[in-house]
Each structure stands twice: as structure tokens, then as C-alpha cells.
């Protein structure tokens, strides 16, 4: 089992490379990931959220109780900056309705499950990161459908109530089950070993989701590749910058500002990809945009975390 834990750590370290590899393989040989669709994709998403839940224990919920103001500021920044910047960038870039939907989907989803690792790399406040990811995920079944209906509800046909119920099932329920298991069995050696493998399982699950989208829609990537990547990059970078300065506005420490930057900027694009496939199956551009965002956020978040760490070493030297 220690081998699996080590493998999980390596997969987590090279998340972006694993996701890119899956996308490339899927475009070359679509049959390799064609199975990741429908109910299978929902199960894969549930596994990702279950893994996140298995990392949450009593001490994490105590953080929420002990630091309500920090958590409130973070959640407010998360669910105002990213949705509003997404629709603003869509208008600035004059994106098609499909790409606009994809970008807004990414912007209205909760923080990414890998943001905690990125905060650790950045010498940020990891406890704060876990607290923010937890709260944004718990709020997602309400906030994501509401923002989507407000921002793009007039241009796309969507069922907000169905999305709310789906997100309760796919995000909240697995997180609650995983967290309950962690609090019940956290002292058990076998559970600790299983929990140690879950980050790697989540990376592979993300790769499967991206691979599934690439298998079906990969041939459409080049149709709008440049403008799509530029829009996703601009959205992501604005999240980092505005997240950081939101922390500065409230006088937060350097560690908290870095954490807020990463938590706001890095979105759960895997969930956005799943939502796109489930609720907008005919919208190929949306699916491709959310899948590309999976890759971009994984790469940029890791790079930013390492840049923060490099800056500390440079100042110390």
C-alpha cells in the first residue's frame, strides 16, 4: 500500500502532465476514452468528490467555526470574482455562446480540489485553503445554478432545479460520505492507507473526464483554439490577481493572500466539464472549453505555487 501512496503522490505532482497525456491519447485513439460518458462520467465525478471528503475531519470543520470572517471573505470573493470576470471576458473577446457557456461554467464552479496542494507549494495557509474549498463546494449546488441562470440563462436552455439536485448528488453526497468515513475511521491504519491513495485516484479520474471530452469533441479543438485558450488564461490570471488583492484589501497575511489567490483562481473545471456533458450535451464548444480549463488550471496553479516558493527563496538569499 505504501507503493500506491507513493504513486499517488507522484500522480498529484504531475497532474497537468497526466491530464494532457489523457487528452492527447483520446484525440489520437478516441476509443480509449469513449467509455467516459453518461452515468460512467457521473460516477467518476463522484469518486473525485469522495476523495476530497475523505480528507476532511473534525479539525477542518473547527477551522470553519474558528475563522468565520476569513472563510466568508474567501467564499464571497470566489463566487463574485470568477463568475463576473467570466462573463466580462466573454464580452471582451466576443466569444460564441458555446465558449461563453463553458467559461461561465468554469467561473461558477467551486474551488479546485488540487488547490490545497498548490497552496502548500506556495507556502500559503493550507488550513485556510481546505476551509475555503470545503465551503465553496458546500455552496456549489445553490450558487452554480443561480449564477448560470442569471448570466447565461437567456441564451441557453437550462434546468436550474435539475442541476441543483444533480450537484447535491454528485458533489455534496460524496463529500459528506467521505468526511463521515474519515471522522469515523481516521485512526484506522487501513483507512489512512486508502486515504493516501485518493489524491492520485482523483488525478486519474480528472484525466478520464478530460479524455472522455477529447474523445468526443477533440476534433473541434482547433476551430476556436487560440481565442478559447486566451479567454481561459485571462479568466484564470484575473482570478489569481483579484484574489490576492482581495486578501490585501482586508489586511490578510502573505500566506493568506497567496491562498486566496490560488483558491479564487483555480476552479473545479472537472466538475464544470461534467456539468457541461450532463446538461448541455449538444454544446460541443462548452465541453471543449471546460476540458481545456482542466489542463490550464492544473498547469498554472502549480506554476504559481512554485513561483511563490521561488520568490521566498530569492528574498531569503
Automatic annotation (TrEMBL):
Instruction: Tell me where the transmembrane regions lie.
Output: 40-57, 69-89, 95-114, 126-150, 162-185, 197-219, 225-250
The record ties this protein, via InterPro entries, to: BilAc:Na_symport/Acr3, Bilac:Na_transpt, Na+/solute_symporter_sf
Keyword Transmembrane helix assigned to the entry: answer is: yes
Q: What name goes with this protein? A: Bile acid:sodium symporter family protein
Q: Which UniProt keywords apply?
A: Membrane, Transmembrane, Transmembrane helix
Listed GO CC annotations: membrane
- Pfam family membership, one: SBF
Main localisation, per the record?
A: membrane
Protein's membrane topology? Multi-pass membrane protein
**In which compartments does the protein localize?**
Membrane
Taxon lineage:
Bacteria, Pseudomonadati, Pseudomonadota, Betaproteobacteria, Neisseriales
Give the organism, scientific name.
Neisseria animalis
Amino acid at each position: 500500500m505504501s507503493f500506491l501512496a507513493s504513486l499517488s503522490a507522484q500522480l498529484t505532482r504531475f497532474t497537468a502532465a497526466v491530464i494532457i497525456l489523457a487528452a492527447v491519447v483520446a484525440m489520437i485513439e478516441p476509443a480509449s476514452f469513449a467509455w467516459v460518458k453518461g452515468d460512467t462520467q457521473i460516477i467518476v465525478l463522484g469518486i473525485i468528490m469522495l476523495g476530497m471528503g475523505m480528507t476532511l475531519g473534525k479539525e477542518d470543520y473547527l477551522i470553519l467555526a474558528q475563522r468565520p470572517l476569513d472563510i466568508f471573505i474567501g467564499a464571497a470573493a470566489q463566487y463574485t470574482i470568477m463568475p463576473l470576470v467570466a462573463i466580462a471576458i466573454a464580452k471582451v473577446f466576443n466569444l460564441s455562446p458555446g465558449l461563453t457557456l463553458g467559461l461561465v461554467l468554469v467561473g461558477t464552479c467551486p474551488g479546485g480540489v488540487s488547490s490545497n496542494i498548490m497552496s502548500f507549494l506556495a507556502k500559503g495557509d493550507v488550513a485556510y485553503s481546505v476551509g475555503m474549498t470545503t465551503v465553496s463546494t458546500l455552496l456549489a449546488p445553490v450558487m452554480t445554478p443561480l449564477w448560470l441562470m442569471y448570466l447565461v440563462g437567456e441564451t441557453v436552455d437550462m434546468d436550474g432545479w435539475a442541476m441543483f439536485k444533480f450537484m447535491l448528488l454528485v458533489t455534496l453526497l460524496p463529500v459528506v460520505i467521505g468526511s463521515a468515513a474519515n471522522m469515523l475511521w481516521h485512526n484506522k491504519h487501513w483507512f489512512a492507507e486508502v486515504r493516501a491513495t485518493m489524491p492520485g485516484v482523483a488525478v486519474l479520474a480528472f484525466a478520464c473526464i478530460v479524455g472522455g471530452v477529447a474523445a468526443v469533441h477533440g476534433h473541434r479543438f482547433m476551430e476556436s483554439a487560440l481565442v478559447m485558450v486566451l479567454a481561459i488564461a485571462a479568466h484564470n490570471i484575473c482570478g489569481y490577481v483579484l484574489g490576492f488583492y482581495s486578501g490585501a484589501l482586508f489586511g490578510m497575511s502573505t500566506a493568506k493572500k497567496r491562498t486566496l489567490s490560488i483558491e479564487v483562481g483555480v476552479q473545479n473545471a472537472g466538475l464544470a466539464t461534467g456539468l457541461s456533458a450532463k446538461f448541455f450535451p449538444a454544446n460541443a464548444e462548452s465541453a471543449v472549453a471546460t476540458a481545456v480549463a482542466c489542463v490550464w488550471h492544473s498547469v498554472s496553479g502549480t506554476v504559481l505555487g512554485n513561483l511563490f516558493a521561488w520568490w521566498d527563496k530569492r528574498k531569503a538569499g
